[in-house]
Structure formats: structure tokens, C-alpha cells
Specification:
globular, alpha/beta, seven-stranded mixed β-sheet, Rossmann fold, 36% helix, 7 helices
């Protein structure tokens, strides 16, 4: 899987297709975790969340991991172009499925519009590995797409997801063919859902999860 081909175009594509919707989802709970010291962001893309994270958490250490070198370059460029402080930010280009997180005791994990890229068996192992780098009361923020529960919203969301998966499988060699919800895997690793917000006719959700006990 590689988003290198989309990296130069992702910004305008997101704006045309979704406007500010995805960014509102990304930042929905950022105000709740302002005491964070060590942040792990995986699948950040071109840095829209990273910039806001740096502004809200100016003293935190941030490790930003993405499989696309071109996306990471876009993130660096965005920070520099909008006055973001790059101190205490480390960028790593790596495949999340094979990368091993350092044992730093992260108190905030962020995976926005990323977990939907993987098949169930991949997602289970990935979440377990990431959880192993989190402290006992870590927060986990994620935003993603979902299939709405009923009615028009469900038909609309399923049509959009069908188109999205086929497009990204062709352009990025996306592993997943359908959406797998990560909730059960997060719960298996000690995280509990604190709050969820739905938007865009229930197509989008923003989650705040928190680990309540060390496993």
C-alpha cells in the first residue's frame, strides 16, 4: 500500500470532496487531551492534523509515522509553511504492519482515517502492537468512515464506501476490500470508548477512547 501517487493531490481532493468535514472529525477531541506528553500519530498523511496537534500541544513529543515518503514531505512542508514548530517532532517512513513502535510510553495514540485501510486479521495485530507502546491510561483518538445504521443514510454511506474502496484499491493497492470496525480490537487491548460523535448523515465518526488499566 502506498499513497505516494496521491500525495501531491490529496489536499485539493479532500477539499473538493469533503470540504472541512474530515478535519473537523480529526480535531473533534483534541481539546480533551491537552495534558499529553508523548504522541504517536500513525497514517497522518499530509499533516493537517499534525499542524493542529502541534498548536494545541506545543510541548509534547510527537512521533509521526506514515508509509508514504511523499506524504511525510507534504506534512513537513505544511508545518514550515504555516509557522508550525518542528521541534520535538520525529518523522518515520515505515509500513505500520511491519514497524515496531518504540517503548516510549505514549499517552496519546492517533489514527485518523487509517484503520479502515486494513483487513480484519491485519487490524487485530496492528492494534495489539500499537497498544503495547501505550501507557496504562493512554488516550486514543480516531476518526473514520462507517456504514450508517438504517434508511437513506445507510444506502448513501454504503454507496460511498463501495466507490472509495474500489478507487483506493486501484490507486494505492489498499489491502482492505470492506470496512472492518476496530472497536472490538481496541476493547481487547484495554481501551474503552469515552465519546463518539457522528456527522455527515452518519457516514463519519470521531472517537475518543481511553485505556483504563494496564494489561
Amino acid at each position: 500500500m502506498s499513497f505516494d501517487l496521491l500525495a501531491p493531490h490529496y489536499r485539493w481532493m479532500e477539499w473538493v470532496l469533503a470540504g472541512k468535514k474530515l478535519q473537523r472529525c480529526r480535531t473533534a477531541f483534541l481539546e480533551r487531551v491537552t495534558d499529553t506528553k508523548n504522541v504517536l500519530i500513525i497514517g497522518e498523511g499530509n499533516g493537517r492534523f499534525l499542524l493542529e496537534c502541534r498548536r494545541k500541544l506545543p510541548k509534547a513529543n510527537i512521533l509521526c509515522v506514515d508509509a508514504s515518503a511523499r506524504m511525510l514531505e507534504e506534512a513537513r512542508r505544511r508545518l514550515a509553511g504555516q509557522g508550525g514548530n518542528c521541534e520535538r517532532i520525529e518523522f518515520i517512513c515505515a509500513d505500520a504492519l511491519t514497524w515496531t513502535p518504540p517503548e516510549r510510553g505514549f499517552d496519546l495514540i492517533v489514527t485518523h482515517f487509517f484503520l479502515d485501510c486494513f483487513r480484519g486479521e491485519q487490524l487485530e495485530g496492528l492494534i495489539a502492537r500499537i497498544s503495547g507502546a501505550a501507557v496504562s491510561e493512554a488516550n486514543w483518538l480516531l476518526a473514520d468512515f462507517q456504514s450508517a445504521s438504517a434508511g437513506f443514510n445507510r444506502y448513501r454511506s454504503e454507496a460511498i464506501l463501495w466507490l472509495m474502496y474500489r478507487f483506493f484499491r486501484v490507486v494505492t493497492r489498499l489491502p482492505a476490500t470492506t470496512l472492518v470496525r476496530p472497536d472490538g480490537f481496541l476493547e481487547q487491548n484495554g481501551f474503552s470508548l469515552r465519546e463518539r460523535r457522528l456527522s455527515d448523515w452518519d457516514l463519519l465518526h470521531s472517537d475518543w477512547w481511553q485505556r483504563t488499566a494496564r494489561l
